[in-house]
Amino acid sequence: MRVRGEGDLYDFESLRWLESVPLTIESNATKQNQNKDRETNLIPNQNSNQNLSVLGETKAEVKLGRSLAARLLKRYSLVRDLELTRYLNSIATKLGSVSSRKDLEFRVGVIESNEIYAFSCPGGYLFLTTGSLKKIQTEAELAGIIAHEMGHVILFHNGEFTESNVFIDILSGLLTPPGSEVVNTAMATAIGEMEKQFFETGRDAKVELEADEAAVGLVSQVGYSPLGLSIYLNVMSKAEGADLLKKTHPETSTRIAKLVFIESTVSIDSAPLVVDRWSEFKNRIPK
């Protein structure tokens, strides 16, 4: 059984808009180098079954992540601000360049909600609410939140896409004609479980703390202050509109205590200087 994705449950049209937004605002030379790196990492050796298997797993991950992202965009309206989205994508691309997932392109979308929350979907689709963005004061805080959500993807907190029945069913969906959006029953079941995690049960506390630790590592490597995420969490803990986040995440005091320890172990002395541009874009958040 297959479920067409353009119906009542999925908004692939908004997702395609997000996918059309450039991932970086770097120079052409930088883009060429990134494309060369991407080709090196993504084009498999045709004689290597292992590489072909890894590429297949990535395709399955992205396929499922796209459908989950389209499901979220049916629940929330996507903010179609090109400049704001390009800016967020550029931060994600910078962080992704030092991650272990060079096989993915990380994309960040803004969704309209007063709830202070963020989402990470398999395959690198990340979403921040307008409520979250309004509480952010610096680019370091913004990078910390994005990096935390990336951490879930990098560390396979949604599961590894190996040779299971769901994996095979997802890959079979890749054979559909280009441009068609089809969600099969195996994918719909997996998406339902992930949605339940987003809005009801949350992830295990251990993996949330792992994503916090990964975030500190990522931001410090590209020159952001490692304190950004803990500063944001401290502000969030006192703000209205964070009920869902508190319901689905560990105690904020526990997260901050662990972050303080991790932050003390990293240095950004050798990292490039980062110019904070958040003040240029914050006023673009819908009121």
From TrEMBL:
<comment type="similarity">
    <text>Belongs to the peptidase M48 family.</text>
</comment>
<keyword id="KW-0479">Metal-binding</keyword>
<dbReference type="GO" id="GO:0051603">
    <property type="term" value="P:proteolysis involved in protein catabolic process"/>
</dbReference>
<keyword id="KW-0378">Hydrolase</keyword>
<dbReference type="GO" id="GO:0016020">
    <property type="term" value="C:membrane"/>
</dbReference>
<keyword id="KW-0862">Zinc</keyword>
<dbReference type="GO" id="GO:0046872">
    <property type="term" value="F:metal ion binding"/>
</dbReference>
<dbReference type="InterPro" id="IPR051156">
    <property type="entry name" value="Mito/Outer_Membr_Metalloprot"/>
</dbReference>
<dbReference type="InterPro" id="IPR001915">
    <property type="entry name" value="Peptidase_M48"/>
</dbReference>
<protein>
    <submittedName>
        <fullName>Peptidase, M48 family</fullName>
        <ecNumber>3.4.24.-</ecNumber>
    </submittedName>
</protein>
<feature type="domain" description="Peptidase M48">
    <location>
        <begin position="85"/>
        <end position="259"/>
    </location>
</feature>
<dbReference type="GO" id="GO:0004222">
    <property type="term" value="F:metalloendopeptidase activity"/>
</dbReference>
<keyword id="KW-0645">Protease</keyword>
<keyword id="KW-0482">Metalloprotease</keyword>
<dbReference type="Pfam" id="PF01435">
    <property type="entry name" value="Peptidase_M48"/>
</dbReference>
<feature type="region of interest" description="Disordered">
    <location>
        <begin position="29"/>
        <end position="50"/>
    </location>
</feature>
